[in-house]
Q: What sequence folds into this?
């Protein structure tokens, strides 16, 4: 049973370009979370999605950032017109269907975005 | 004030020592608590849940103090392999609001 997969593992973009980060949850998991981690800092929650639904996007910047989790395929975190401050590690986590309580989140290896 | 606060450390202790660190949270509606471990440039992994009555897993003991709104992690007989950053996680009742602390760095020296 493969774990959470993220690609690419490393992504380099120039200012103004778009970055697309992909996350395939563990088999059987229908909940996906995206986090950002700046160097020497903790994880900051960005968005929580279920298939075709955004449940909580309170941690997402209002502009340039969007996320989706389509019925088929991986979850995508999209950053438009990247700036140097977007350089960070972006982690995706997945968990099984919630019964109303917290289920353990399993993290992917992360995508390290560098904006030149 | 941050919703979840941790002493960033680093804690530098000799192998075999006992080390403990706390994590405080500000929202009394917090429902569930966890400790995650993150190795350098790796993803976080669940270390243990924190139960109201306190719980132990080998050399690790986690405790919750709801009155003072903090959780703690105690590591006994520390090993070199315990060197990592330890993140506390607080989950609110909706289960969709999950807050990670900034982490406490622990370094075990031979």
A:
């Amino acid at each position: 049973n493969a774990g959470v997969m993220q690609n690419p593992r490393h992504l380099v973009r120039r200012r103004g370009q778009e970055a697309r980060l992909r996350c395939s949850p563990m088999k059987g998991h229908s909940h996906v979370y995206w986090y950002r981690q700046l160097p020497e800092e903790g994880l900051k929650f960005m968005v929580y999605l279920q298939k075709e639904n955004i449940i909580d996007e309170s941690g997402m910047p209002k502009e340039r950032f969007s996320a989706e989790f389509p019925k088929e395929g991986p979850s995508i975190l999209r950053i438009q017109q990247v700036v140097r401050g977007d350089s960070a590690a972006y982690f995706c986590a997945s968990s099984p269907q919630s019964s109303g309580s917290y289920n353990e989140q399993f993290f992917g290896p992360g995508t390290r975005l560098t904006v030149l | 004030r941050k919703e979840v606060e941790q002493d960033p450390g680093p804690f530098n202790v000799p192998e075999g020592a006992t080390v403990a660190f706390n994590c405080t949270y500000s929202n009394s509606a917090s429902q569930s608590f966890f400790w995650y471990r993150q190795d350098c440039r790796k993803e976080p992994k669940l270390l243990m849940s924190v139960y109201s009555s306190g719980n132990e897993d080998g050399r690790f003991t986690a405790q919750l103090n709801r009155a003072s709104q903090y959780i703690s992690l105690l590591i006994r007989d520390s090993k070199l392999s315990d060197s990592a950053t330890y993140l506390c996680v607080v989950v609110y009742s909706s289960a969709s609001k999950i807050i990670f602390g900034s982490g406490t760095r622990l370094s075990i020296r031979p």
